[in-house]
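Notes, p. 3: input format for complexes.
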Amino acid sequence: MIIETERLILRTFQISDAEDVFEYLKKPQVNCFACMKLNSLEEAIKELEKRSKDKEFYFAIVLKETGKVIGEINAYPESSDLQNEGAIGDTFSPCWMLNKEFQGRGYAYESAYAFFDYLFKEKGARRIYAFTEDYNYSSQHLCEKLGMRLEGKFIEFISFVNNEDGTSRYENTLQYAILKKEWVNR
Ligand SMILES: CC(C)(COP(=O)(O)OP(=O)(O)OC[C@H]1O[C@@H](n2cnc3c(N)ncnc32)[C@H](O)[C@@H]1OP(=O)(O)O)[C@@H](O)C(=O)NCCC(=O)NCCS
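Output follows (186 residues plus coenzyme A):
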């Protein structure tokens, strides 16, 4: 699956993307992606072997002009209908990340907009929600620009890293969401 925007291509990851991915995942910028840290190019290659099998929900964000992978976006179907055990998931929670060098140029919005449109129109999405830490203003701004509503703030909701004294550091988390009917009418 390929999604094309004015400046970007969203496509399945390839093993040859390893150097570009290692560039931004050798030091994840935010705590919630700490577990995605890659310690070597070899680890990046192994990770991309896995990702290259995912053709529907995990996309590399590629700059059309140069072919460089500048980030990633993914979301997987979750079921919210407890009445129907076999129901196909219609709820998605995206993760988005850009190489620091390519932030502040509108690429996150351009790719997320196209990805949301794909989920709503082609993947049966009914609801898309996003979690973001209360200090992650660029991610909050992106949610708002996409037309997502702030639904709530969870205090000391989740821990990804430790404090200096070794105890778990709990983060305050905001939840944003948008329904298909809101997306269509925005
Ligand atoms: C969250 C994240 C993806 C947002 O990326 P970003 O670069 O800030 O967002 P955008 O690509 O939409 O760019 C925003 C700004 O680029 C600027 N810009 C420059 N050229 C532009 C262009 N041609 N078109 C549009 N915007 C442009 C605009 O000023 C825009 O700000 P505005 O929306 O106030 O107008 C990024 O900060 C990131 O990867 N962070 C680390 C990972 C992370 O935190 N993920 C989320 C975890 S919850």
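Residues 29-30, 32, 96-98, 103-109, 132, 136, 138-139, 141-142, 145 surround coenzyme A (CB under 6 Å).
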